[in-house]
Amino acid sequence: MSFRPPDEAPADEPAEISDPRALRALAHPARLTILEHLVVDGPATATECAEVAGLSPSACSYHLRALARYGFVEEDPEGGADGRYRPWRARIVGIKVGPQAGRTEAVRAASRVLVENVETLFDEVRATYRDRETDYPQEWQVAAGSTQDVLHVTAAELEHVQEQVRAVLARYRRLNRQDRPDGARRVYAMVDFTPGFSPDAPA
Question: What is the pTM of this model?
C-alpha cells in the first residue's frame, strides 16, 4: 500500500487502499473528522484537531498516530521548529478502494464500514443544515439542495459519468485558500450511484 502526498499527486487522483487494516483504521468517525480537517484547513496541532473532533488533546494524539501508521497523515516537517508547536498535515487528498473484483472479504467488510461512517457524517451535516435552513441567506437556500434522477446506462457509461462528475467537483475543491473567490463558503457534496436492478435480473 502506498500513498502520495497532496503536493505530489493530482487532487483528482485519490490514493488507492487495499489493506483492510488501513480501511478499519480510517473508518473511526473521529479519525475521519481529523483527516478532513487536515485536508481542508491545512496543518494543525493535536490540540487544534481535538477542538474540531470534540476530543481531548491526548485522545486526538492517539488517533493522529493511528492515522500516521497507515500513511494518512504525518508531522509537518515545515512546522514545529521550536519543538513546542508540532503540527500535522494530511498526506492524501482522497481515497478509493481497490477494484471490486479483486477485493477480499476482509476488504469488502472494512470498506463497507468506512463508507457507512462517511455517509453518517454527511447525514449529520445535512441534518444540521435542515434544522437551520431558514436562517441562511436566501441565495444559499436556493443554491443548496439535492438532485435525484434515474439513469439507464451501461456499466461503461456509468463509469464515464462518474469520471465527469469527479472532474467537475475537483475544479471547485480549492484546497488552497488563495484559489477561493470572495464569498466562497464550504459546501459538502455527495453523489451516489446505486444500481436499481437485481444482480440476477436479465439484461
Answer: 0.83
